[in-house]
Structures are given as structure tokens and as C-alpha cells.
Amino acid sequence: MAAQLKVGVFVPQGWRMDLAGVRDPVEKYETMSRCALEAESAGFDAVWVYDHFHTVPEPQLESVFECWTSMAGLARDTRTIRLGQMVTCNSYRPPSLLAKMASCIDVMSHGRLILGIGAGWYQHEYDAYGYEYRDAPERLRMLRESLQVIKAMWTQEEATFEGRYYTVRGAINEPKPVQKPHPPIWIGGSGPKRTLRVVAKHADVWNSNAPTPDQTHALVKILDEHCARVGRDPATIRRSHQIRVEKEDDALRIGQAALRAGFSELLLFPFAGGDLRTGVERAAALLPRMRALAR
Predict the structure, then answer these.
(1) Which of 2, 7, 123, 246 lies at a CB distance of 3.0 to 4.6 Å from 259, suitable for a disulfide?
(2) What sections of the chain are H helices per DSSP?
(3) CATH number, domain at 106?
(4) C-alpha pair distances (Å), 23 with each of 20, 248, 274
(5) How far apart are the C-alpha atoms of 169 and 115, rounded to whole Å?
(6) Mean pLDDT of the chain
(7) What's the pLDDT tens digit per position in 85-122?
């Protein structure tokens, strides 16, 4: 698995106050776009954005570019790099609409879209935007139904699904995605009882949000057990881990531990503060050393 190492990078989008130093909103977007192009030129496999509306650690009157409209913009700004969300909040859009949006962006990008999705967690955004914030088990049940709707919309001529939370009756989704059978589905989260059960059933890639790869080892075993229960080979689910690029030696150490644990995808956070271009350059400079870990 390590020999197939893929490395992605987050671009500044505003959520982590990473565009606060740019005043003009047009230039804020152009900054995000230039960073995506630099990541593409440097040889990264994918660029990633968050699906959030308000900044962290505290909500501020600062620009945060919406995830899926940003996907559409970056789909046309870039040419070869893959495009993902870490991760789409299932509660923010009906799954039938999300499937339609994703299909169109996969076509617009000539087949470069990744669908990252999770149950959602940022209650402040739910309350502010008028979404009902249900308890975690119910949000995960909704996610499980959503994935069935999305797959139906992507693969059936007229999608039909009757569920507790979502219903589609003869929904036509044209154009279908370019990628077959559909764009890869990344599911983020580390809940051992419910989230990993959804991963075992539906994910092409599992993204661990455990603080370190070492803490993920126990979760890997639990995921394998869920796969056995649903009759799935766990080797068919790729694994990704997130790494903050603040101290290069620490990032390389975490990356090496992740590879030893069987992870084949690494996601770098280079924009934790300071000059944005410096963040891009630091991540790009680290990329060859990250890839060398797999050899």
C-alpha cells in the first residue's frame, strides 16, 4: 500500500482564518486559486477544502468560501489535480442535490472529483443557519441513508429510494459522473461503533481524524472487524491520515508512522498561519521527502 502513496494538501479557504490578511474578497478567492495551481505544479495529488461557513476557533466576521461553489471554481481553474472536501457535512444539503452537484463538477473537472463526506459536528453553524442539530447516532443514520441515495443517483437511470429520512422517486441525474462506477467516496471520522460501520459498508477511502497514527491502530482493527461482518475485504478501503506541516521532522515522523500502519494517503495542513505563500512553499518542499518515505 505504501508504494501507492498519494499526498494531498489543503488550500486556504478562510475557515482557519487563513485569508484574514487579504482584504479584498476577490483577491481572497484568487489567493485560494493560486495556491491550488501551485499545489498542482508542485506535484500534489489533490487539493482539499473544508465544508464550513464560520471560522474557527471562534466565529468571526471573516470570509469563508463555501465548499462546493469553491469546488466548481477550482475545477475550472486547475487541469490535473484532484479536488476533495474534508469533509462535506451531510446535514447541509439533501443527498439528491449533493449527488447532482457532484456529478456536474466531476464533468466540469473531466473526472477529478473526490466526494468527502461525514455526519457533521459544528453545532454553531447548524444553529446559525437554521439546521436541526440531531444527536450523533441520528446524524450517522442519516449519513448512511444519504450514501445510498447518492450512489443510486450516480448509477441508476431513474433513482428510487425510500428511507426514514430521505426519499427519491424516479430522480433523473444527468449528466452522470465521468468516473466509473462513480467518484471515490471518502468518509471521515473515528467513531468506532457507528462511523466505522458506515465506512465498512460504503467508503472507498477512510480518513482518520485521530490525533496520531498510533492512536489509529486500534481503530484499524475495529474497522477490519466491521468489514468482516459485512463481508468486505478491508484491503479494498484505502486509508488516509492528516498531518500538520509546522515542524518538518514531526510531519515526516507522523507520515512514516502512518505508512507503517497501512495508510496510503496523507493530507498536509500547511496553512496554519503566517504568510500563505511561505506555507505553500513549505508544503511543496516537504513533498519529495514525504514521497521518499514510501520507497
Answers:
(1) 2
(2) 25-42, 67-77, 95-108, 123-129, 136-155, 195-202, 213-230, 248-260, 276-292
(3) 3.20.20.30
(4) 7, 30, 15
(5) 23
(6) 91
(7) 999 999 999 999 999 999 999 999 999 999 999 999 99
Q: CA 295, CA 289: separation in Å to the nearest integer?
A: 10
**Structurally, how many domains does the chain consist of?**
1
Spatial CA neighbour of 291 closest among 271, 270, 272, 266 = 266
Write out the residue range of the structural domain in which residue 57 sits: 2-292
Distance, CA of 254 to CA of 210 (rounded, Å): 12
Strand pairing report for 238-244 and 82-85: unpaired
SS3 232: coil
Q: Report d(CA 133, CA 287) in Å as an integer.
A: 39
Query: Which CA distances in Å does 69 have to 5, 16, 31, 128, 219?
Result: 29, 18, 16, 20, 33
In sequence order, what are the residues at sequence separation of 6 or more whose Cβ sits closer than 8 angstroms to the Cβ of residue 196?
189, 190, 206, 219, 222, 223, 226
Note the Cα 191 to chain centre separation in Å. 17
